[in-house]
Design brief:
single chain; 220 residues; mainly beta; Immunoglobulin-like; 6-stranded mixed beta sheet; 13 strands; 6% helix
C-alpha cells in the first residue's frame, strides 16, 4: 500500500493515519573534558526510534516489544580507544542486552511514549574512563521493534498500525510478534583536551621572627 504525508503524519491511500513511525535517531551526550569523563559517569537520554500517536493507541489494547539486535555497547574514538556505556528503558532501569526481548505491553501508553514527539525514550550511561585522547566517540544500537497499536477509530478501533508479521490475539488466534522492524540509534560523546596543574606544597624552611632578633648597637 502506498503512503503519502499529510499534516506532518503518514497516511495511506484510504486516508487512514499511520499511528506509529520508525526513524533512525542520534543522542549526543555532550562535549566534556577528559578529566570529567575519567572521573564521572555521563548520562543522557534520547529517542529509541519508535513514536506513536498515543491518542489513537489509547482506544484499545496495545502491543509493544523490543529486542536489541546488535551493539558493542562502547563508544569508539581516536586510535580505537573506547568508553563503555549502557542503555536502558528508564533512568535507573536494567541495562538492555543483545538478544533479550522486552515485552512493554503492560505499561500504560502515556508512560511508554513519554519521550519527545510521543517517542519511547532510551537512557544512556557511560563508565568513567581515564587516559582518553581528545576527539569524537561514537557508538550505536540496532533495535528491532514489534508493535500493534490503533491507527483508526473513534470510540472503537477500526484499524491497527503493526510491524511486519504481527498477529493480534483473538478467538482461536494466538499472539504472533512477527518479524518486527529495525532501526539504528546512534550515540556520541566528544572528549576535550584538559590540563590540570597540581602544585606540590612549597616549603621555605624556618626563619627567626623580626621581633625576636637583637638589633646591633649603633656607632658610639
Amino acid at each position: 500500500m502506498r503512503h503519502r504525508r499529510h499534516a506532518g503524519r503518514l497516511v495511506d491511500d484510504a486516508g487512514h493515519r499511520r499511528s506509529c513511525t520508525l526513524s533512525a535517531t542520534s543522542t549526543n551526550l555532550g562535549s566534556l573534558s577528559s578529566y570529567t569523563v575519567a572521573n564521572t559517569a555521563q548520562a543522557g537520554s534520547g529517542s529509541a526510534g519508535l513514536q506513536c500517536d498515543i491518542l489513537l493507541a489509547a482506544l484499545t489494547t496495545h502491543y509493544v516489544g523490543l529486542q536489541v539486535d546488535a551493539s558493542t555497547f562502547r563508544l569508539t574514538g581516536p586510535s580505537g580507544q573506547t568508553i563503555p556505556f549502557t542503555a536502558a528503558l528508564s533512568a535507573n532501569g536494567a541495562a538492555l542486552a543483545i538478544g533479550s526481548f522486552q515485552n512493554l505491553s503492560s505499561l500504560s501508553i502515556v508512560s511508554l511514549f513519554a519521550g519527545t514527539n510521543n517517542s519511547i525514550p532510551l537512557y544512556f550511561r557511560t563508565t568513567a574512563t581515564s587516559g582518553l585522547r581528545a576527539g569524537r566517540y561514537t557508538g550505536f544500537l540496532d533495535l528491532r521493534w514489534f508493535y500493534s497499536v490503533c491507527s483508526l477509530g473513534a470510540a472503537v478501533c477500526l484499524s491497527y498500525s503493526s510491524s511486519p508479521g504481527f498477529v493480534r490475539p483473538g478467538l482461536g488466534v494466538a499472539l504472533n510478534w512477527g518479524a518486527g522492524s529495525t532501526v539504528r540509534v546512534n550515540v556520541e560523546l566528544t572528549v576535550l583536551n584538559d590540563c590540570i596543574i597540581t602544585a606540590p606544597a612549597a616549603s621555605f624552611g624556618s626563619a627567626p621572627l623580626v621581633a625576636a632578633s637583637t638589633p646591633s648597637p649603633g656607632p658610639s
